[in-house]
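User: Can you help me understand a structure? I only have the sequence.
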Amino acid sequence: MAAPYPLLALRGTQGVRLCRPSAPRDEEEDARGIFIPKSSQGLYKVFIFSEDGSLFSWCDGKSVFVRHTVSGKDVLSLPRPKTSALSFSPKGSYLATWETYAVTKDIPAGTPNFHIWNIKTGELMTSYVHKKLSNWMPQWSGDESICSRDVNNEIMFYEIPNFKQAANRLHLEKVSNCFISPGESPFKIAAYVPGSKGGPSFVRMFKYPNLNTVGAAIANKSFFKADKADVLWNKKGSAVLIITSTEVDKTGASYYGEQGLHYLAADGGSSGVALGKKGPIYSVDWNNNSTEFCAVYGFMPAKATLFNLKCEPIFDFGTGPRNSVFFNPQGTILCIAGFGNLRGDMEFWDRKQLKLISKPQASDSTFFQWCPDGEHVVTATCSPRLRQDNGFKIWHYNGELRNTFQYSAGDELWEVGWQPFPLGVFVAKPIVKPTVSVAQAEAAKPGVYRPPGARGKPPPKKISELEPAENMKKIAVEESNLSKSALKNKRKREAKAKAKDQQAHDGTLMSRSSDQRDAIAMTNYIVGGATTRQQPVSEGNADDDKKIKALKKKLKAIEKLKEQQQQGKELEKNQLDKLKTEEALLKEIRQLEIS
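Assistant: Let's start by predicting it. Here is the structure, written out as C-alpha cells:
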C-alpha cells in the first residue's frame, strides 16, 4: 500500500487548517477546507505533530486537543487555555504542555506551569515550575525510557513511568543544557557548560547512567568565545556538531557577534571545523546517513561546503546569496537557499552526482521545510516577519511550482509545518531532470538595468565576484587549457547532446495527455519564462557553418523587405527578385544542416 500524502498544517487568523497540497490533482483536498473549526474563544496559539505524524495537537485558547491524523478522532482534550508550548514524547505516549509562569497575591510562589500528560488515559503524570520558555522542553530517549529536565543548574533524569522522583542527576557547575542522543541504547548525554572567570566553555559527553563517577565523561570539547552553544546530534547518535556564538564580536568585524563550529564524537574524537571564509555561520545540517554535514558561512556572498566526519571538505558549492541549508529526509538532495532579507534563491543539488538540479526563486519567503516524501518543499511568507502577502507555495525539487495559496488582505499566516513520517516510509527515487535547464532559466531572467550613459560600455568591476561551485571551476580550468578548435568541437558535442535530450523530451511530451502537456507548459512558464525552440545543430566543417551563417543573413534581409512591403513601400525589381529566392535559401540551409 502506498504511503499517504503528508498533511500540511497551517496556523493563522483563519484558525488551524490541514490540507494535502502535494497530492495529485485528483486526490488533492482543498487547501481552503477547514478541518478544525475556528474557535470563537480566542486565537490558536500553538500546534505540533508527534514524531511519527500519527497525532496532532493544538490549543485554541480554551483547551488543548490531541487528534489522531488517520481516523480524525480526538483522543484527548485538556482544559488548559493558557498553554503556549507543546511537546510530544518520541512514541507519542506523553504530551508536555507549558504555560506562562504567573505569580498572584494568593500564591506568591507561583503555580506549576509545566505539565506532562498520559495521552491514552488523560492522567496528569507530574507538574513542575519552569519560569522561562527557554530550555523548557523535556529531553527524551528514543524508547521513552528516560526523560530529563533542567533544574537550577542541574540536570534531573527520570526513568519512565516514574516522574515523581529523579533516578539520576548530572552535577556540573553552571550546566546550561543537556541533549540526549537519538538512536538506540546505550544513550549518550551531551551537556553544555558556559565559561566563567576567564575559563573556557565546554561540552562533555556521558554514557547513561554513568554520569558522576570519576572519569565518567567519554568525550570532551572545550572552546573560548562562546556565550551560548547549539548542539546538533546526528541521526545515529554517534557525534555532535557544536555551534558556538558570542553576543559581541570584539574585533568589530560583525555586528551580530562571532561564531565557531566544532565536532565531538562519542568515541572521544574532537575537532574544530576549519571554514574557508571568515564571517558568521548561518546554517548547519546533518545528512540523515550521519556521515556528513553541510555548513553555510562567511560574509556575503556566503560559502557552502560539504564535510565528512573527519571535518575535511568533500565539496565546495561556491558562494552566493544564501543563509540556509537543508538535506531532504532521504539524504539524496541538498537545498542551499537564501531567505529572510535575501531574495529567496534556492539551489537543489543531486548529492550523489554533486550536480545542480534546479535553481528556482521563492521571493519574500520566511520559512522552508522538506516534505517527508523527499521530493517537495514548502516555502511560506509568515507574520510577524512579513505581514503582507502571507501564504505558502509547494515546489518540486526540479524547480516546478506545484501549488500556491495566497491569504487575502487582512488575514495572516503565522506557522506552517509538514506532518512527519518515520524514515523508510518514503523511499528515495531517481532524480528527475527539470523540463527547463538551469542555464535556460537563468537566461530567461531579466537582465540588470543599466542607465543609458553606461550602455555599450564594459560593465563596472564588482566589489566581490561570486565563486562557482567546485565542479564548475574544474570545467573552466579544462576549457582554458584547450585550443580554440578543440573548445569549439567540445561545445558542438555538448550542443548535439542537448538537442537529442530536447527531442526525446518533446517526444515524451507529445505522448502525454493534453492536461499533462498544459501543466508542463505552465511549469516551464513559471520556472523560467517561455522556452525557446531548440535550433538544429550543425556538425559540419567550418566552411558549412560560414555558408549557413551567410544564408541566414540573406533570409533576415528578406524578412525586412517583407515588412517594408506590408507597410506599403514599393519595392524595386532587384528586391522583388530577392523575395523569390527565399524557398531556395531555406532548402539549401536544410541540406547543409543534414550533411
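Now, to help you interpret it: The helical segments are 438-444, 470-480, 484-511, 514-528, 542-566, 573-580, 582-594. Residues 542-594 form one domain. Let me know which part you'd like to focus on.
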